[in-house]
C-alpha cells in the first residue's frame, strides 16, 4: 500500500474541510440519517429508494474515482482547488 500518498490525500482533504468548513466525502452511498431520514444525500452515489435501490454515480463520485487513479495529475488537482 502506498501509505505516503494515502496520508497526503487524507491530510489534504482534512485541510480543505477545515479551511472551508464543509464535510467532504461523507459516505460512499446515500444512507439513512436519524434527523433527516433518507432526504439527506451525502454519498458519492445517489440511491433511488423508489426504484429498486438503483445506484447512480454523482459528479463528485466520478471526480473521486478519477482522483484515485495513479495517473491522476497533481497539477490538475491544484487547478481545481
TrEMBL record:
Gene3D superfamilies: Glycosidases (3.20.20.80). SUPFAM superfamilies: (Trans)glycosidases. GO terms for molecular function: hydrolase activity, hydrolyzing O-glycosyl compounds. One of its GO terms (biological process) is carbohydrate metabolic process. Coiled coil: none annotated. It holds the Pfam family Glyco_hydro_1. InterPro entries: GH, Glyco_hydro_1. PANTHER family: BETA-D-GLUCOPYRANOSYL ABSCISATE BETA-GLUCOSIDASE, GLYCOSYL HYDROLASE. Belongs to the glycosyl hydrolase 1 family. This is (thale cress) hypothetical protein.
Amino acid at each position: 500500500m502506498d501509505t505516503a500518498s494515502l496520508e497526503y490525500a487524507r491530510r489534504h482533504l482534512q485541510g480543505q474541510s477545515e479551511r472551508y468548513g464543509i464535510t467532504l466525502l461523507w459516505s460512499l452511498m446515500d444512507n439513512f440519517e436519524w434527523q433527516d431520514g433518507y432526504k439527506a444525500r451525502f454519498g458519492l452515489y445517489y440511491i433511488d429508494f423508489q426504484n429498486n435501490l438503483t445506484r447512480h454515480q454523482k459528479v463528485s463520485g466520478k471526480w473521486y474515482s478519477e482522483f484515485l487513479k495513479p495517473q491522476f495529475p497533481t497539477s490538475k488537482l491544484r487547478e481545481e482547488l
